[in-house]
């Protein structure tokens, strides 16, 4: 996981009053960061594990106390995620210190900008950021697919993926059959519906159909991580998800065996990426095309979607953040496309694109306090 603790010197200073910022990060990737505005240095802590595990939470708190004491760091401002159930969010409210709650993907975007500027300090163009991951809290939703333009002073959302439901709540993340059922019902995909129904007991199926129809006991999402799960489950590559990025790994391994160049259609309408045509074409391929060709078409589709998202912003530097960009095949395909388009682009190099980057982005949010412009 690289050097720890990691010291990052900010290439740009804020005009705001001096602050000592403690950013507590996310959940699965237990890191915190310290930012002293007088030195403009961000410290990223060692990795402390998944904080939903009690032993890791204890280790996180011990490590945090050690660093605060060693550096005689007395925070004047705290930053944490907006996800109310994160261990770090609950921890933040235990401090008697002013608190800023940061939208998960805003943190990803700012972290990717910093990483790009550390790679090339002379960048002076605005940025367009593709933020794709599994779970990011957003107004009681679990988002994972947004597109922003801006810099340290301003963040504007310019596109996002359409929403669908996590039937029965976040347990659907571990049971992708629920995701496939939701998509089949949402887009009236009879062939896919027939395939997925056999994985449910009859009474169970009725309950989930009611959840879909009445939009109850479910959470809205648009996560790319869940899109990987839908494709992998439909190809019989995964059942119950047993570890992080399982679907991404099995799809990548399969896609590497194919030289397929086609992709699935999609629509971007009113700044929303709509996937009805994608799923209709995907459903037609099931049982017809070889799974390896379907997997490769899926990766090709992701590249085409990003190409379409960045097309209107020709003068912007492209940055990509979120756990989806830990996928090597996707990043390699994107790099080829960006070079072909002669677009300036940056992937994470100094720290990972997954939630390990969140405390860095949170600290930057608290330090620069950018203007946020939401998509209507």
Outline the fold blueprint.
Layout: E1 6-9, E2 20-23, E3 33-36, E4 41-44, H1 54-70, E5 77-81, H2 87-92, E6 99-102, H3 104-119, E7 127-138, E8 141-150, E9 154-161, E10 164-167, H4 176-186, H5 190-197, H6 202-214, E11 218-221, H7 224-234, H8 246-255, E12 267-269, E13 272-274, H9 276-285, H10 291-310, E14 317-321, H11 328-340, E15 345-346, H12 358-368, E16 371-373
Parallel strand pairs: 2-5, 5-6, 7-14, 9-13, 9-16, 14-15
Antiparallel strand pairs: 1-4, 2-3, 3-4, 7-8, 8-9, 10-11, 12-13
Describe this structure in words.
Pfam families: HypF_C, HypF_C_2. InterPro entries: Carbamoyltrans_HypF-like, HypF_C, HypF_C_2. Pathway: Protein modification; [NiFe] hydrogenase maturation. The protein has 376 residues and is of the alpha/beta class. It folds into two domains: 6-162 and 308-373, Nucleotidyltransferase, domain 5 (2-Layer Sandwich); 164-300, Tetracycline Repressor, domain 2 (Orthogonal Bundle). Helices cover 39% and strands 21% of the residues. It contains twelve helices and 16 strands. The strands form three sheets. Strands 7, 8, 9, 12, 13, 14, 15 and 16 form an eight-stranded mixed sheet that branches. It has a six-stranded mixed sheet with strand order 1-4-3-2-5-6. Helix 2 links the parallel strand 5 (77-81) and strand 6 (99-102). Helix 3 (104-119) crosses helix 12, helix 4 (176-186) crosses helix 7 and helix 10 (291-310) crosses helix 11. The longest helix has 20 residues, at 291-310. The model has no long low-confidence stretch (mean pLDDT 95).
